[in-house]
Amino acid sequence: MNNNYLGLDAGGTSTRAVVVSSDGLCRGVGKAGSGNPTSAGVDAATAAIRDAVTQAVTSANAGPVAGAALAVAGAADPGHRAAIVSALSGLVASEPVFDFDVLAAYFSGTAAPDGYVLLSGTGASAVRVEDGRLAGISDGLGWLLGDVGSGFWLGREVVRAGLAPLDGRGATTSLTGLLLDRLGIAVDDRRQGGRTATLVAATAALYAMPPLRLADFAALVFTAAGAGDQVAAGILDRAAAGLAETLAAVRTSDVEGPLVAAGSVLARQPDFAARVAPGAVLATDGLAGAAVLALRHGGELVDDEVYARVTSSLAQLTGV
């Protein structure tokens, strides 16, 4: 019997779902907004998850799927999990299994049951995987306490370095102009309360944003560093060192499996990924890992042949 399963990868930016058959053929996908209750709120996140799942099941013409694996960032609260299960009733025949989003990232790069994944997206962490399960993790402590080398961390350093010369501190850097351009703020040296109008406007605009939006400025450091800016290069040096330290914290001689590099920062900056994770498999689509988790939790064998079928059929559906 060829069962169908549901894989879900729900993060702060988007929620994506895939229906995959037991032989590894991806048959339908769906996409909606943020499924992270921390950033979107419980009601909006739950609605996004149901929307994405409904799209995937409908496009696959599969009817209720046999089982589901849900990788939902920020869904540790039992109440939110219960709300998701309730929202998916009628779409999933058995109660969904919640799993770690970092495992979905890992299995997006390999079918090997043992190995490592280094992530740098909005957040950052490193994970050791043993027998398909999370066996060790470092960082991933969130924007306030950790996530060194993440998109948020990089964006915050860009903002700090870019504003410093406007405040009479720090080295001159092209990050200042790039930041002001992104904010849509013109240079204005008139004084307001002892500060330039430029600095007043920039700080007001930045404080009006949710803190995690600082990740939007991460790409500027790569632009500036590529043009030879030494301040930007220094930021990337510190990010690389921090990510290397995070990865080293989970490495053990007992596990010699593959290393996967994942997350939006590493996926969009392959040269930086090669620097911080030499020899790593670069995973660009976390939805493939969600499909693998769904198959594994359904008791299906995911060998290299099945894994290749998952990634190739998913690429055909998504165009990635």
Automatic annotation (TrEMBL):
Signal peptide: none annotated. InterPro entries: ATPase_BadF (IPR002731), ATPase_NBD (IPR043129), Euk-type_GlcNAc_Kinase (IPR052519). Pfam families: BcrAD_BadFG (PF01869). Residues 6-269 form the ATPase BadF/BadG/BcrA/BcrD type domain. It comes from the Bacteria. This is ATPase BadF/BadG/BcrA/BcrD type domain-containing protein.
